[in-house]
Amino acid sequence: MSALLISVGAITALSSILALLMVIADATIGNYGEVKITVNGDKELIVKGGRPLLGSLMEEGIFIPSACGGRGSCGLCKVKVLEGAGQYLPTELPWISKEEQKENIRLSCQLKVKTDFKIEIPEELFNVREYRTKLVKLRDLTHDIKEVNLELLDGQEIKYTAGQFIQFKVPAYELTDEPVYRAYSMSSVPSDTRHIQLEIRLVPNGICTTYVHNHLKEGDEVIFNGPYGDFFLRDTEAEIICIAGGSGMAPIKSILMDMAEKQNPRRVRYFFGARGRRDLFLLDEMKELEGKLPNFTFVPVLSNPEEGDDWDGETGWVTDAVDRHMAEGDGAKSEGYLCGSPGMIDACIKVLTANGIPKEKIYFDNFG
Amino acid sequence: MNETIYPVAIFFAAIFTNNILLTNYLGMCSFLSVSKELKTSLGLGAAVTFVMATTTLLNWIVYHQLLIPLKLDYLRFIVFIIVIAAFVQLVEMIIERVSEGLYAALGIFLPLITVNCAILGVSLFMVIREYSLAASFAYGLGSGIGWSLAILAMAGIRQKLAKARVPKGLEGAGITLIITGMMALAFMGFTGMINIS
Predict the structure, then answer these.
(1) pTM of the model
(2) pLDDT by residue (tens digit) across B165-193?
């Protein structure tokens, strides 16, 4: 009996002493008090010190894009820190290039706020909010792409520019133990501020795509934050070349529908690459847009038309079709808008620059 | 306590002939996951060495001054774990507070090794082999250096391996484990050269 008491007592005493030590340490060594974050030179936030910048900003209602939720594995949550941050941590360096280091770009999920900070973030991030929505309609576009229609709850409205993206919150379920965020472009028209629409392709074992395809049902609640991104139509007179593949349709469709509403007279050519007939979708909508937009051509391109596809349109790689369609001198008066896999984007940049479009006039989202 | 074994002999034995990683296969998880780059391996190795040397010392004192007099030596597993965890946490907080450079180089790895089995292993071996205080410290320090050398060797090999054509199914952990096995085979040749227990 006494042995039992002594052992329990000893462990308890030791644990208590160490716990007390930790509490004292946390209150002294680990206590950084309140610190001030100055955003863009005017906005001042008072936050509790010692925690990562990303989380501190999120608590103050400023959402920095992040796809991994602060684990330092996506490299998206970059923020320019003018004052306060010390040297780079090994966990930041894989994501920060030499040029970015010179500009004091930091990975905000890894960087802890221990002293007063001065940071700079793009103005448009102040518009970013978290939205609660209801899934009103889930529609199959192809055998592996679903259209997700969300209605904003709580009477909220969202303001965004056609082409921008949001971050979809996937709750914990069988493929993930904690909520994760994944970025998707909106395919809806910005004039409808109460609804947004996404196009999500099933990726085998993809955390978010599996959730949307196999678990989500109409009527379910979906949470997202946004809008983000600088992929939108530039306000110029230039001709527009859009190239997309698969679910890369989404932001292009949004941009085109927005142009149709505004009766934008610019010349648009939209090349859409797919494998076979079964990977093509929204053909009727594109036909309708050709009627609504003054100067719009839709060019679907099949790389592997199957027998029975009965296809008389363009075949081969989408980039080759672009090359065939671009006439001498087109490049100098055009802008490129791309959405697709990193490999496709690289190939498109090659063919567009070869045809004379300057690199800085080719726009795309880098989700890779 | 065996006075015939000198701390110096133990120190070198722990580095080479009785390498904790290659002969006892302890501390494998961080060894496999962090050995991709030389620079990070060096940081982790330094952190492991520091923690091993200091916690062995600390645990020796706790064991011989507290557990033995109270006849509570059977509690050593749980006590060692608590002491290591609390100590590592404390060191991390202090480093983060006082030295930014040290935190970036070393502190960031500390939470990773709180639950490293090699560190607990060293403390337990020290008890089983009845080392003196000096011998324990030498053993902890030597084991840490030995572990660091092993992970540095592996990081060097893996940097070369990045250019090799590894069969798809063996990429990553698979090929690393096979190489670790080969390194361990080489170290088996040293078995029995120095008697440290």
Answers:
(1) 0.62
(2) 889 889 888 899 999 999 999 888 887 78
Q: Closest residue of A to B82, CA-based?
A: A15
Please indicate, yes or no, if residue A10 is contained in any of the structural domains: no
**B168: exposed, middle or buried (Cβ count in 10 Å: 0-12, 13-18, 19+):** exposed
Cβ pair A243, A357 in contact under 8 A: no
Residue A38 within a domain: yes
Is residue A299 located within the same domain as residue A266?
A: yes
Reference A218, options A157, A150, A132; nearest CA is: A150
| Domain parsing of chain B, residue ranges | 7-186
What pLDDT is attached to residue B1?
45
Q: Which of A18, A25, A112 sits opposite B82 (nearest CB)?
A: A18
Give the integer Cα–Cα distance in Å for A123 and A40: 8
Instruction: For residues A247 and A356, state if they share a domain.
Output: yes
Quick one: which H or E segment has residue B120? helix B117-128
d(CA B196, CA A356): 74
Domain that holds residue A329: 239-364
Instruction: Express each pLDDT in A252-284 by its tens digit.
Output: 999 999 999 999 999 999 999 999 999 999 999
Chain B, nearest residue to A90 by Cα? B104
Q: Return the ∠ at Cα B16 (arms to B13 and B17), rounded to 5°.
A: 65
Task: Please state, in angstroms and rounded to a whole number, the distance separating the CA atoms of residues B196 and B190.
Answer: 13
Give the E-state strand segments of chain A in sequence order.
34-39, 43-48, 51-52, 78-83, 105-107, 112-113, 117-120, 129-140, 145-152, 165-170, 180-185, 195-201, 221-228, 239-245, 268-274, 296-302, 314-315, 334-339, 362-364
- Single out the residue in A177, A200, A228 at which a domain terminates: A228
Contacts of A12 in chain B (CB under 8 A): none
Query: Does residue A25 lie within any of the structural domains?
Result: no
- Show the DSSP H helices in B35-106 as ranges: 38-62, 76-98, 100-105
Distance between CA atoms of residues A139 and A218, nearest Å: 10
Contact between chains at B86 and A88 (C-beta distance less than 8 A): no
Quote the CA–CA distance of A63 and A169 in Å, as a whole number. 13
In a shared domain, residues A216 and A244: no
Locate all alpha helices (DSSP H) within chain A, ordered by sequence: 2-28, 53-59, 98-102, 207-210, 249-261, 283-292, 318-325, 342-354
pLDDT classification of B5: cutoffs 50, 70, 90: low
Q: Measured between alpha carbons, how far is A364 from B8 in angstroms, rounded to an integer?
A: 63
Are B72 and A14 an interchain contact pair (Cβ–Cβ within 8 Å)? no
Instruction: Summarize pLDDT for B20-65 with one digit per residue, the tens.
Output: 999 888 998 888 888 888 888 888 899 899 999 999 999 999 999 9
Nearest CA in chain B to A23: B90
Q: Which pair of tokens denotes residue A226?
A: 């946004």
CB contacts, 8 Å: B75 with chain A: 7, 10-11
pLDDT tens column, A60-108: 888 888 767 677 877 888 999 998 888 888 888 888 999 999 999 999 9
Count of structural domains, chain A:
3
Q: Using CA atoms, how far apart are residues A67 and A208, in angstroms rounded to an integer?
A: 11
Q: What is the CA radius of gyration of chain A?
A: 25
